Amino acid sequence: MGASLSNTAENGSATGGTGLGDMPESCVALVFMYLTPPEICNLARLNRAFRGAAFSDAVWESKLPSNYHHMLNLLPHWRYEGLSKKSIFALLSRPVSFDNDNKEVWLDRVSGRICMSISSKAMSITSSEDRRHWNWFPTDESRFQVVAYCQQVWWFEVSGTVMFPFPPDIYTLTFRIHIGKFLKRIGRRVSNFEHTHGWDLGPVRYELSTSDGQCSVSECLLHDIEQNDAKGNIKHGCWIEYKVGEFIVSRSDPVTEVRFSMKQIDCTHSKGGLCVDSVSITPSDLTRCRKTGSFCK
């Protein structure tokens, strides 16, 4: 069947009929504007007309967010000078670092919508300068290759802010945390809960606010969110994505400032044994944001 489709696409006119290869490239390009980038790249293999349309700047311009130039401005000029729109899409679908490489922004390779991740290195952490309370350790389980580990504190507070011209959309902000410390022994991942304590004695408070007055507040016991979910998946000893809240961007100008925090400041007891990796900001209806993608060449 695949061979038959290929023959029809290329040789329809040669056999006296009309095939996909007889479609004007401009018409194919108009159809491609309604398809996703992976679908376009798959169809580009059918024939020359489809391949030509798959490289059209007009097609890929429609897949880029309206203010993608702000992302390009984070890169050296030589990285994108002279590139086609398809190549620019491919470039921006990979993480673009900024703020001393402590923040990354990229395009979801299917929808072309903006996603962002913020390292704990870019956050303000109370008592982080005291190694008795906090320390940092490298790991390939973080996109930033390092996470903050709370060993023991009485006042727990992690906060941060980001200013970015997000395109109009509804976004979700999520903290990525890990109860207990993890390490590798003889090639196996092992979780260590030796210093994990105090989180079951009081809730952690999460806050989100924006420069245009939106806000979201929630509380939870970390002990509760590490339990098995509705599908029976065990979260104990795994990374947990905790949704703080949503915010709406109606326009990119003025730039949106997003402030967020995670705190447990009940000083009647100490707490510890918690890793804080990052905060992610993604369009709310995306199940996940892919870090990289493949494109037709």
Automatic annotation (TrEMBL):
<feature type="domain" description="F-box">
    <location>
        <begin position="17"/>
        <end position="63"/>
    </location>
</feature>
<dbReference type="InterPro" id="IPR025886">
    <property type="entry name" value="PP2-like"/>
</dbReference>
<dbReference type="InterPro" id="IPR001810">
    <property type="entry name" value="F-box_dom"/>
</dbReference>
<dbReference type="InterPro" id="IPR036047">
    <property type="entry name" value="F-box-like_dom_sf"/>
</dbReference>
<protein>
    <recommendedName>
        <fullName>F-box domain-containing protein</fullName>
    </recommendedName>
</protein>
<dbReference type="Pfam" id="PF12937">
    <property type="entry name" value="F-box-like"/>
</dbReference>
<dbReference type="Pfam" id="PF14299">
    <property type="entry name" value="PP2"/>
</dbReference>
